[in-house]
TrEMBL record:
<dbReference type="Pfam" id="PF05269">
    <property type="entry name" value="Phage_CII"/>
</dbReference>
<dbReference type="GO" id="GO:0003677">
    <property type="term" value="F:DNA binding"/>
</dbReference>
<dbReference type="InterPro" id="IPR007933">
    <property type="entry name" value="Transcrpt_activ_CII"/>
</dbReference>
<protein>
    <submittedName>
        <fullName>Uncharacterized protein</fullName>
    </submittedName>
</protein>
<dbReference type="GO" id="GO:0006355">
    <property type="term" value="P:regulation of DNA-templated transcription"/>
</dbReference>
<dbReference type="InterPro" id="IPR010982">
    <property type="entry name" value="Lambda_DNA-bd_dom_sf"/>
</dbReference>
Length: 94
């Protein structure tokens, strides 16, 4: 159980880190305008709520990934690995 909690905590920290990095790439003003809230609300969100939001995302079994990421299922990844292995073995025989 403790190992699961540690893994969950690690995922939450990674999510929190990713969110904070992306927040740092934009100004609080621009984010506030996009969300239709005050800059102080963004500041409070950043300082008070991001850790809890990150834990919530983890608890729900969700992931935070960049827009340009490509997500594949475990079954698809297994298929890709099988095909890659097959064709790499053929290439090594040639």
């Amino acid at each position: 159980m403790e190992r699961l909690l540690n893994k969950s905590d690690e995922r939450s920290r990674k999510i929190e880190s990713m969110i904070l990095q992306r927040l740092a790439e934009k100004t609080q003003t621009s984010i506030a305008i996009e969300l239709g809230v005050s800059e102080s609300k963004i500041s409070r969100l950043k300082n008070d709520d991001i850790p809890m939001i990150s834990k919530l995302i983890t608890c729900l079994g969700l992931k935070v990934v960049p827009d340009d990421s490509l997500e594949v299922s475990q079954a698809e990844l297994k298929s890709i690995k099988t095909l890659a292995r097959k064709y790499l073995e053929i290439d090594e025989m040639a």
